[in-house]
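Attaching the record inline, Q. Sequence:
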Amino acid sequence: MIEGWRDRSFDDPTIHQLLGLGSHAELLRRYRNAIYHYQPTLIEPRPVAFLAEAEEAVPWTDTLHHEFCRFFDEMLASIPGQSNRRRLRESVIALIGWLPMDDTAAQYAKVRRLCDDAEARIDRSGEVLPPEARALLESVAEARAIAEDGIAKYPSRKVHNYQKRIGL
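Structure, as predicted:
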């Protein structure tokens, strides 16, 4: 995944920051190669090197995985048109057998889209808004503010939590 990310020149500041921390990406590449290709010896130094760094490398790998899922989930969600998104999701599942799972950032983005939808429905009604509808719009605005705040803080918080876990 990391090699494909770099080859395709995708852009995400959180993922770039994670890829720039330490030598974990290289250790992970060597670990993968040693695991998925025949090795003449039972104890191979490449996986041992990754495992020796497990205290830092495992949380890094987990965080990077979740950030890749977030990035691709956001990319799929940005495709215009619900039927286009559905077809693309079905194609991705058929091609690779999975889709990124919803994570915190995706949930924040989903709340933001629900707020947009609620406001649009009320606006389209064209009616004078009763107090209940105005109260609903205020609640939607509060939910949007919480989601926007979460979206803005999520990437740096995720990297900060990882750095805190490994003592950086």
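The chain has a mean pLDDT of 77. The chain is about 80% helix and 0% strand.

More tomorrow.
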